[in-house]
Amino acid sequence: MSTDARYELFYWPGLQGRGEFVRLAFEDAGVAYVDVARLPEAQGGGAGAVVRLLRDESLATPALAPPVLRVGSVVVAQTANILQFVAPALGLVPDDAASRAWAHQLQLTVADVVSEVHDTHHPISTGRYYEEQKAEAKLRARDFLAMRLPKFLGYFERALARNGGTYFVGGAASYVDLSVFQIMVGLAYAFPRAMAAAEAQHPLLVALRDRVAARPNIAAYLASPRRLAFNENGIFRRYPELDLAE
Amino acid sequence: MSTDARYELFYWPGLQGRGEFVRLAFEDAGVAYVDVARLPEAQGGGAGAVVRLLRDESLATPALAPPVLRVGSVVVAQTANILQFVAPALGLVPDDAASRAWAHQLQLTVADVVSEVHDTHHPISTGRYYEEQKAEAKLRARDFLAMRLPKFLGYFERALARNGGTYFVGGAASYVDLSVFQIMVGLAYAFPRAMAAAEAQHPLLVALRDRVAARPNIAAYLASPRRLAFNENGIFRRYPELDLAE
Q: Does A8 touch chain B (CB under 8 A)?
């Protein structure tokens, strides 16, 4: 796979969601990609593009859910798996197997955070509205903020410190740094009160977040219309009743 | 990494849990591994061995949770990541990047199943007893059996069919086949009534389960004391009130 490959990302339009972790990697690398579902429907875009891919019976490697990346004849799904697959060509992971396993270990922990954040607003059923499971969501969110968030952030802070404090993997930015940036800003969107307190205790993660935001390609991306705003259709949702009490 | 490496698996003793996916790979390959926490405490075993590893401040690549695999100086965590890391040496994945991405995509979907099954008995808090969240567990389990289980099994059945019906990846057994065997038997333990109905609709998965169980090294393992029984400390727990009503 070379960077000449045409990369097509399939993800629901209108939200950052899990697709955002993939977008950040392409944006940081300055490598062109097509965000297929954000094209006009007349050009094959819209949510229908995602649905058609998921239902395509000719695919040897079907996907259960987006994001899905198509690179020529290869179709890859599962966010962390997509990142791992494209990172070498994007220059976003070191070459050796041990470093790649370490990067992926951290990325799967990012995936765990994403999954648990999703469950703060959907603890009972992915298929039902938040309003139908609000009471349980309050319980789950309380537990997440009290028990899980400190555990995850403490782990990432420690992992970053172990590697010198600047990068998670090796001596340069990897897809992991970009993804941890995304969970830091996502968590701050969803739980501003809880994160204000947590950030004070995780200075390395806060500095990493700010360094990633200042990377030229990321800064340009964040200022562009390609970066969607956080909203209540994504993973990170601002439901004030789920945040710490004032 | 060669098969001469000494493999040390760190996982809680007394339950199959996520460690079982790793055990099955070593057992099927017939490659020796040390299940460290199942050694006597006098030999460095017991749950303390896991705790010591998690707290080891000298590790460059700390783990948040078990299973953790140590191979010489390399320490790798996250179940799917461990499998991906060792599978080439164990002969449990094809050589090409596209096949490996496909295998890992499926394995991460296995991980999603495991996580959602865990949440059927712990929908509110991992840190609290099942009995403290039983009402919510009933709601979550009902949704899982009605909406998620058919989705996951339907996906795996389809994926297997797309590859010819016998193996998930390429033309030989991979770590994915072993892991899907494990979720099939685990689900049947946890939800015998729901799975009796589901199995009738997923003949390829049932046949795969039976073929894996009959593989000589797996059959020997399942008959050995190394294979722990399912129990209510693991991922797959038999709480009849969470299964389909009779």
A: no
